[in-house]
Amino acid sequence: MEILFGGVRGTTPRAESRFAIYGGHTTCLLVTGAGGERLMLDAGSGVHVANAALEAVSGLDLLVLFTHLHLDHILGLPLLTTLFDAEARVELASVSNDNEGPCRAFERLLDPPLWPLGLDALPATVTYSSVPPGKLTQTEPVLRQGNLEIRGCAVPHPNGCTGWRVDEPSTGASFVFATDMEWSAAGPKHREAFLATCRDADLLIMNGHFTAAELPDRTGWGHSSHDECVAVAQEAGVRRLLITHHAPDNDDVLLADLDRELNASWSGASLARQGDTVILNEALREGRNSL
Fold first, then answer.
1. For the segment 206-235, what is each residue's pLDDT rounded down to a tens digit?
2. 57's torsion region: left (phi>0), alpha (psi -120 to 50) or beta?
3. Using CA atoms, how far apart are residues 150 and 168, in angstroms rounded to an integer?
4. Which of 119, 138, 158, 201 has its CA 20 to 30 A from that of 284?
5. Which of 69, 5, 65, 51 has its CA nearest to residue 245?
6. Given this model, what pLDDT does residue 100 score?
7. CA-wise closest residue to 163 among 148, 182, 185, 147
8. Is the pLDDT of residue 3 over 80?
9. Cβ count within 10 A of residue 3
10. Beta strands across the sheet bearing 38-41
11. What pairs with residue 90 in β-bridges?
């Protein structure tokens, strides 16, 4: 299983040169399974980076799965090139209390005067999947994309959010994607469920928007600190940790300093970088290669 980090920035894109190393695009991951299946997690402006990998494949069957529908996680959707392929099939999925799921949100996003083309004008076949919150479980998959099995867990964030775990039984690879989440706001049941979701995963990709010093003044903002990410990863027994959703004002100099401090606290932890590709394989599970 291969994971491309299309965007790792939180809240808003940054285009200045001082954000070039860690990246200025907002959240988007592109997962490619061993069987060639494709899964996109969130569709922030990092869709631009993922497009380069998707444009080489026509007639694609793509599942776009959202953690939540805040603007920084969906603003790249109108520019997803797969939507303009008449032979492609794109499923848009999220947790929702109604049967329409993300449909209404995207109809508003892709509608004049906000965007010139509505969903009904796009060449691809677009469908929607709504996952009822009560269906989320740490044991049974709630969605499948080819050989990839997807489980979920509610995490604390304003307006709600879902942490997703992706397993590939054919290779044994697994990872958890948790952005956005305020770990300090999680009650005992939330914490127990999330730790169970992460248990023994190869990789945890978690939102570390703040430093420990910043966190006390950011209560209720819906994000975690780098230290909290490390503590969660170690308690859950994951093999590696990549911290994402970097604060919009944290430039490359600051993030490089934070990255060194993070790696010094635990060698299994690093900050995610836009454009990086992680391959989950047996060597990673044996600790022989680094991300």
1. 998 777 777 677 776 667 888 999 999 999
2. beta
3. 9
4. 138
5. 5
6. 65
7. 182
8. yes
9. 25
10. 125-131, 89-95, 61-65, 38-41, 28-32, 2-7, 277-279
11. 62, 126
* Partners of 279 in beta bridges: 2
Under a CB-based contact definition with an 8 Å cutoff, are residues 186 and 156 in contact?
Answer: yes
- Reply yes or no on whether the pLDDT at 83 is more than 60: yes
pTM of the model: 0.92
SS3 content of the chain, % helix, strand, coil (to 5): 30, 25, 45
Could you tell me if 56 and 190 are in contact, meaning their C-beta atoms sit under 8 angstroms apart? Answer: no
State the pLDDT confidence band at 18, using cuts at 50, 70 and 90. very high
118-141 tens-digit pLDDT: 888 899 999 988 888 888 877 789
H or E element at residue 265: helix 252-265
Q: Which of 138, 129, 104 is nearest to 119 (CA)?
A: 104
Tokens of 254: 């600051």
- Indicate the DSSP class of residue 25: P
pLDDT at 285 over 70: no
Task: Tell me which residue of 193, 174, 172 sits closest to 183, measured CA to CA.
Answer: 193
Give the list of residues 6+ apart from residue 10 with CB closer than 8 angstroms, or none.
26, 27, 72, 179, 180, 207, 209, 223, 244, 245, 246, 247, 248
What is the C-alpha separation between 98 and 21, in angstroms, rounded? Answer: 40
Distance of alpha carbon 182 from alpha carbon 167, whole angstroms = 24
Specify the pairing of strand 2-7 against strand 277-279: antiparallel
Tell me: pLDDT of 80 over 90: yes
Answer whether 39's CB lies under 8 Å from 55's CB: no
What span, in angstroms and rounded, lies between the C-alpha atoms of 158 and 48? 27
Is the N-terminal amide bond of 113 cis, ω within 30° of 0? yes
19's tokens: 């954000």
